[in-house]
Amino acid sequence: MTIGIFTAVDTEASSFISSCAAEKTFKGSFAFYTFKLGRHDAVLCCPPSVGEIAASAACQLLITEYKADVIFNFGVVGALTERTSLFSSVLVKDVVHYGMDTSEIDHVPVGKYECFDGIAVECDTNLIERALQIVDLPLARCASADKFVADPKQKSALNQNFGAEICDMESAGVLFTCKFNGVPCLMVKCVSDSLIGGANEYEQNCIKAANNFFALAARIADGLD
């Protein structure tokens, strides 16, 4: 099995790069690191930019160019509730792309894609169940769009409007690309900034929040066929 791994920024990739002998190559502006993750082949992609478009392009390259059988996405996120504490890790159960809004022309609810049944798009339930047999992590809904959310009022609004507990800038691009290609994906997130935290808290905590990503990936990969 080939496991494609996507991280949005170099900080989120640091535990992978420092923990294994990876060979680095480039395809265009995208950096790729190939290595072994247990008995599986693994390819990590670092994009040239943050955001949904770069995330989608990176995952498509992992699928098309590296024939990834499954995609793992590891990243840091902001908390949308007081219950979601700093440095807590979660498995993403579904994603809302709250930046999608065609309501002015078709009255479709914000976040709704006509190709998906609901506003919240489910992650691969089979892969989540297998991961839960290995790692004891809570499930969370992620609100995703090309916006860093720092204002506690905006964070609370995302929770109230969409039922999301965390937010980021890449999960929709990752999940939707995998859905369109019929490739399962698993997303593991760690909280770097709390409900009342903003950019300063993110900058202080990002490295620490990402420290355990390689260890989690290795444990989960060991449980895959």
Strand order of the largest sheet: 5-9-8-6-10
Taking the sheet with the most strands, its summary is: 5 strands, mixed, barrel
* Average residue pLDDT: 96
Percent helix range: 25-40%
Strand content: 25-35%
Q: Give the count of helical stretches.
A: 8
Instruction: Report the principal-axis shape.
Output: globular
Unreliable spans are none
Structure summary, number of beta strands: 10
- SSE string: EHEEEHEEHEHEHEHEHH
Structural class: alpha/beta
Can you give keywords for this protein?
225 residues; alpha/beta; 5-stranded mixed beta barrel; 10 strands; 35% helix; globular
Structure description:
- The chain has about 220 residues and is α/β, with parallel strands linked by helices.
- It is about 35% helix and about 30% strand.
- It is built from eight helices and ten strands.
- A hairpin with a 2-residue loop joins strand 3 (about 30-35) and strand 4.
- The longest helix is centred in the N-terminal third of the chain and has 13 residues, at about 50-65.
Which secondary structure elements does this structure contain, and how are they paired or packed?
Layout (H helix, E strand, L loop, with lengths): L1 E5 L3 H10 L3 E5 L2 E8 L2 E7 L5 H13 L5 E10 L9 E9 L5 H4 L14 E2 L2 H8 L6 E6 L7 H11 L3 E3 L2 H11 L3 E9 L5 H12 L2 H10 L3
Parallel strand pairs: 1-4, 1-5, 5-10, 6-8, 8-9
Antiparallel strand pairs: 2-3, 3-4, 5-9, 6-7, 6-10
Helix pairs in contact: 1-7, 2-6
